[in-house]
């Protein structure tokens, strides 16, 4: 069945010297409530040191028009049909150390709506593509070399950055249907870089939920529920009719995957 691999945060050992924490800079505002066409920048703060260390997450939720392939345990399992919403996240590593995992928690009963998930190889959320617009406001800011359609990112305050794009080594994506998580793991990702785009697709529009980023060394982990942490968008608890449509779509994906 599609995307059945369960996953728990890896505790990879990372060699570090004296820890240098990048000072927290006030990020761009997040919308009061995420809509089905919105973008923002959220801070995940440390469960150990609070606001003294944070990870920045650029995100957007836009209609999904097709073109992506879902993966499970690093193996492509088929194209994701157009429809629903693209939930896209880009990690800007402002923690001062390497990170190796990111996970979002979906409301109870919603994880079954996920039609596919993965990493868009080489994709920078700051730049427009056929999959998504540029994560930027109507004018150009240091972190966004191309203007985008999200006025809330105009500031002040503006987005943090700029950050160089770093490729994620040995990426794995999984959907945990028991605990309701969508998770990505990868080789330790250096401080001062931004990641390729992490994504999943769901037919359900967004509300705010919780995210966690991980590393084996304090001040990890960082999360929405840590002191001063901010939420990220996840699919809302749907109306019964939407759940029925999601179930039909997943059944079709599972049948196609079984035939492969």
SSE inventory with pairings:
Blueprint: E1 38-46, E2 50-63, E3 69-72, E4 75-79, E5 85-92, E6 99-105, E7 116-120, E8 164-165, E9 172-176, E10 181-189, E11 193-194, E12 197-202, E13 206-214, E14 222-223, E15 232-235, H1 240-259
Parallel strand pairs: 8-11
Antiparallel strand pairs: 1-2, 1-14, 2-5, 3-4, 5-12, 6-10, 6-13, 7-12, 9-10, 13-14, 13-15
Characterize the structure shown.
By secondary structure, the chain is mainly beta. The chain has one domain (38-174, 192-259). It is 8% helix and 35% strand. The protein is built from one helix and 15 strands. The protein has one helix at residues 240-259; strands spanning 38-46, 50-63, 69-72, 75-79, 85-92, 99-105, 116-120, 164-165, 172-176, 181-189, 193-194, 197-202, 206-214, 222-223, 232-235. Strands 1, 2, 5, 6, 7, 9, 10, 12, 13, 14 and 15 form an eleven-stranded antiparallel sheet that branches. The longest helix is centred in the C-terminal third of the chain and has 20 residues, at 240-259.
């Amino acid at each position: 069945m599609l995307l059945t691999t369960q996953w728990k945060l890896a505790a990879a050992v990372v060699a570090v010297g004296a820890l240098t924490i990048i000072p927290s800079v006030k990020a761009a505002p997040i919308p009061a409530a995420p809509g089905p066409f919105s973008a923002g920048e959220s801070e995940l703060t440390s469960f150990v040191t609070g606001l003294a260390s944070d990870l920045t997450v650029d995100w957007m939720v836009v209609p999904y028009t097709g073109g992506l392939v879902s993966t499970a345990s690093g193996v492509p399992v088929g194209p994701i049909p157009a429809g629903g919403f693209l939930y896209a996240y880009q990690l800007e590593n402002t923690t001062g150390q390497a990170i190796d995992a990111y996970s979002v928690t979906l409301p109870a009963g919603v994880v079954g709506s996920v039609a596919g998930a993965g990493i868009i190889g080489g994709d920078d959320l700051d730049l427009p593509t056929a999959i998504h617009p540029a994560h930027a406001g109507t004018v150009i800011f240091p972190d966004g070399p191309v203007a985008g359609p999200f006025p809330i990112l105009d500031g002040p305050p503006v987005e943090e950055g700029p950050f160089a794009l770093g490729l994620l080594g040995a990426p794995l994506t999984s959907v945990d249907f028991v605990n309701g998580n969508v998770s990505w793991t990868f080789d330790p990702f250096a401080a001062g870089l931004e990641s390729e785009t992490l994504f999943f697709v769901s037919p359900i529009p967004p509300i705010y939920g919780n995210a966690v980023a991980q590393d084996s060394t304090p001040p990890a982990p960082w999360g929405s529920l840590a002191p001063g942490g901010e939420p990220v968008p996840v699919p809302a608890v749907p109306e019964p009719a939407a759940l029925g449509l999601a179930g039909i779509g997943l059944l079709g994906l599972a049948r196609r995957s079984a035939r492969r």
